[in-house]
Amino acid sequence: MNRQDLADLIFPGLTKTIADYEAMYPERNLGENARVTRFAPSPTGFMHIGHMLGCVIDYVLAKKSDGVFYLRNEDTDTSRTVEGAVEYIRHVLEHYHMEPEEYEYRDLEKTKGNYAPYIQSERKEIYQTFIKHLIIEGKAYPCFLTQEEMDSIREGQARDKRRIGIYGRYAKYRDLPVEEAIERIKNGESYTIRLKSSGDFNRKFKFNDLANGEMELPENDIDIPIMKSKDGLPTYHFAHLVDDHLMHTTHVVRGQEWISSIPVHYELFKTFGFKMPKYIHIPLILKKDGDTIRKISKRLDPEARMTYYEEKGYPYLAVIEAIMTIANSNYEAWREGHPDAHFTEFEFSPKKMSSSGALFDLDKLDNISKNYISRLTKEEVYAGVLSWSKIYDEEFSEILEKYKEYSMAIYNIEREQKKPRKDYTYYSEIKDKTWYMYEEYFDYSKVDFSAYDVEEVKTILMKYKEIYNENDSQEEWFNRIKEMCDVLGYASDRKDYNNNPENYKGSVVDVTNILRIALTSLTTTPDLYSIMQILGKEKIFARFDKMIAK
Ligand code: GLU
Asked: Cα of 390 to ligand 1 centre, how many Å?
């Protein structure tokens, strides 16, 4: 009996060979420098900002080079799969307009792309074909170590301060005669498949990471598990090798936590004689916490989760901008030179990525977002706040739909000008900054004139009703207020008042303030003339009348 018999016993039903799969999934027909990237999250939790950083880089690399950005669902760790995680990933990609060119959405029964399936748990036969090949070649073997044995090996290694893992003398089954392995399997013993490593831990190899440069790493000598006993699915290490090979990935963008796995991946690719993709290991995302800088944490920091940005209502492009600024140190300078370019026109350079960590600063995001919203048209702001409120504030969305033109007019106050107002940082704060414009939200009990003489307020409001003309230009409008000041004993010029306060009841500033408070209940607002133009005479007078009656 030989290794072929062993391999046939373990994988009896496989009909294809590696060559068959390579023929099924041929080279992609792309330009010479086209980059093929994949976003390959495991659905073991909800997408966080670290995933997003990798995803944006994947996307930019592919788009900029007319390559392909595809989505792969790395769900081989079935015990850790979280319900809804896959759907949420799709949602985020949609929300950020980074739709993959190739994908497989099982729940929607939708698949696109010539390299399907894109869900690892559906690729079992493919992986097993590759594993079978290794067994026949004597480069992988069934291992019968029980969980208890492995636990005790690990404890012993920890106690003796040795490297952890199944290697050297710990790899008890690597040289088990084929006959014995066959017999154990026939007897129903449980086993995993391990790589029979040919590496030497004392030897080093050079590895070039596009972000971190050349690294010297020790060879792998651990017989890592490549197929689990429970479900016959491969481990991540093995699955990614097969997939990136068959799907012709050119660039792998992934977290720095994978650097320690490079020796394993290097050996696996070498064992098959496959070309390794290029790797870009991206830094951890850090945040400022008081005086310290620490790793962003899903547990401690709400902004670590992608849900945060949608709940707040940041425009998606503002979030991407903020991410791009931490992805590449020269992005901001590029943006200054290309204010209107799409972010995918930027040539991402892995070398210009911080290796020590990427500091993600919410103040910076706020700043980017504020500027971004200030440059939108009123229609765009309206569309943004409407789609946000449809999910997070239904009542407000109904108001917005009822008063569409009116709301857009509000957003247009001091907008179409060289230096537009920067009132809004995210969509969730727009209601808090515009509620007083809507009768439904205006609260007369909030109007507070305690800083003024009530009779004076009444006189001013009544007088103003007489003179107000809604067809006035801004200049006419202001002149009319000034004229009223003269009549009522207020200084129409602030300077006059400041020089001789005893001669006046107050100044034009007091008068406009009283009007402002009566109309908005606030002491500071955007341009009052614009607010009045939008409110319209009827509403203005109605509000005045209520104040006068009060
Ligand atoms: N499935 C892996 C993870 O979610 C992806 C690593 C990779 O992109 O290769 O961490």
From this structure: 33
DSSP 140-172: EEEE---HHHHHHHHHHHHHTTPPPSS-GGG-T
Atom of ligand 1 nearest to the CA of 257: 10
User: Does residue 42's CB lie within 6 angstroms of at least one atom of ligand 1?
Assistant: yes
> Which atom of ligand 1 is nearest the CA belonging to 254?
8
User: Each residue of 412-441: pLDDT tens digit?
Assistant: 999 999 999 999 999 999 999 999 999 999
- Region 15-30: mean pLDDT is 97
Angstrom distance (rounded) from CA 40 to CA 62: 14
Residue nearest atom 7 of ligand 1, based on CA coordinates: 254
The string of DSSP codes covering 301-343 is -GGGBTHHHHHHT--HHHHHHHHHHHH-TTHHHHHHH-TTS-G
Instruction: List CB contacts of 32: < 8 A, sequence separation 6 or more.
Output: none
Distance between first and last Cα of the chain: 102
Ligand 1 within 6 A of CB of 85: no
**Residues contacting residue 23 through CB under 8 Å, at least 6 positions apart:** none
**504-515 per-residue burial string, b: 16 or more CB within 10 A, e: under 16:** bbbbbebbbbbb
Tokens of 4: 């072929």
Burial of 399 (0-12, 13-18, 19+ CB in 10 A): buried
Q: Is 41 in the pocket of ligand 1 (CB under 6 A)?
A: yes
Rounded distance between C-alpha atoms, residue 403 and residue 434, angstroms = 13
Rounded to the nearest whole angstrom, what is the distance from the C-alpha of residue 257 to the centroid of ligand 1? Answer: 10
For ligand 1, atom 6, which residue shows the shortest CA distance? 254
Q: What value does the mean pLDDT of the chain take?
A: 96
The pLDDT of residue 229 is 87
Which atom of ligand 1 approaches the CA of 253 most closely? 8
The reply to whether omega before 117 is within 30° of 0 (cis) is: yes
C-beta separation of 204 from 183 below 8 A: no
**Dihedral over Cα of 192, 196, 200, 205: its sign:** negative
Confidence at residue 375, expressed as pLDDT on a 0 to 100 scale: 95
Say what percent of the chain tops pLDDT 90.
96
Residues 6+ apart with CB under 8 A from 83: none
Q: Encode pLDDT of 54-68 as tens digits.
A: 999 999 999 999 999
CA 103, 105, 111, 117 torsion-angle sign: positive
How far apart are the C-alpha atoms of 267 and 273, rounded to whole Å?
A: 10
Which tokens in the block code for residue 478?
């202001």
Name, in order, each residue with C-beta under 8 angstroms of 67's C-beta and a sequence gap of 6 or more: 30, 31, 34, 35, 36, 37, 61, 250
Ligand 1 centroid to residue 258 C-alpha, Å: 8
| C-beta 456 within 6 A of ligand 1 | no
